[in-house]
Amino acid sequence: MPTRISVFLDTSTLFAGIWSAEGGARMILKLGEAEAIRLLVSSQVLEEMERALRRKAPALLGLLAMLLDRSRVEVLPSPTPQRVKESQALVGHPGDAQVLAAAWDAHADYFVTLGREHFLENTALQEAIPFPMGTPGDFLAWYRAYLSKKAAD
Hints:
This protein has one domain: Rossmann fold, CATH 3.40.50.
C-alpha cells in the first residue's frame, strides 16, 4: 500500500470537525476514516479539546471519542525539548509551541489550523517549517493538487 500523507490537526481544527458535520475540518476526519490520509494529534491537542468541550459543549464528548476512533487519529508522543525551544522562538506562545513541535517531530506532511495570530499570519514561521500549513480548506485544495500530480506521474 502506498504511503499515506500525514496530516497534523491542531485543537481549533479538531473542534471545528466535531462542532460541524459539514465543512472542511469534518471532511478531513472523513478522509482519515477512509484511510486516505494519516491523521495526527498531540496529547496536548486532545487535552485542550476535552477541556474546550467540557466547557462549551459537554454533550459532544461522546462524538469526539467516536470520531477520533473512526478517523483513526494517532496520538503522538511529547515533542523533544529542543524542538519545543525552536518552536517557541517562532510562535512566541508556549502552548502553540508544544503543538507545533509535535507536528514537526512527527514529520507531518501538512499542519492544519484555524489559528491566525500565531500560525497562519506568521510568515516567519511559514518560511521556517519544513511542511505547509493552512486552514482545512487550504489543506483540501493542497490535497486535491497532490492527488492530481500523483495521478499524472
